[in-house]
Design goal:
By secondary structure, the protein is mainly β. It has a single domain, classed as Tumour Suppressor Smad4 (Sandwich), CATH 2.60.200. 13% of the residues lie in helices and 36% in strands. It contains one helix and eleven strands, in the order E-E-E-E-E-E-E-E-E-E-E-H. The protein has one helix spanning 108-126, and strands at residues 4-10, 17-23, 28-32, 39-40, 51-56, 59-64, 70-72, 75-77, 79-81, 87-90, 96-102. A six-stranded antiparallel β-sheet has the order 2-1-11-10-7-8, with helices on one face. The chain has a five-stranded mixed β-sheet with strand order 4-3-5-6-9, with no helix packed on it. The longest helix has 19 residues, at 108-126.
Length: 148
Amino acid sequence: MSNVITLSLLHPLHKTPVQSWSFGQESVIRIGRSTDNNVVLYSAVVSRHHVEIHRTDGGWAVKSIGTNGTYLEGRRITEVPVEDGIVIRLARSGPNIQIHMSEEKRDPLKELLSRRRTEEDAKEFDHNTQSEPHGESALPHQTTIINS
C-alpha cells in the first residue's frame, strides 16, 4: 500500500495514541461528529463536518471547515500542508489528532505497545526472570466518545 495517511486520536493528558485510522485510497478524508465522515468523533466542540484532509500535488493538506476552528501549534488555521507528525486540535479545547504519512500502513497504537513490551522484556531480562512469550492479540474495536 503506498501513500498511506494515518490519523491518531491522542490521549488528552499523555499525548499517546488511543485510536488510529489509516487511509490509502481516499482523495479526501473528513473528520467530524456526523456519521457520514470517515472519522467520527463524538465531542460537543467538534462540528458535524469539522476538517477535510485532501490530497494535493505535493502530498496532503488540512482544511478547517468547522464552526469552532482547527488549531495547529495554538494558532487557528484555514488550510495548511500536512507535514509528517503534525498534531491538529479540533476547536480550542477539543481532541488532538496526529497525522502520519508513510509508504506502508502504520498502526501507532501497536507500535507503542510493541515498544512497551520490548522495554518490559528488557527489564525482566535484567532481573534474570523468566518471561512469558507475548501472544499477538487483537485490539478491541472502540467507539470514540470524547467528554468535552
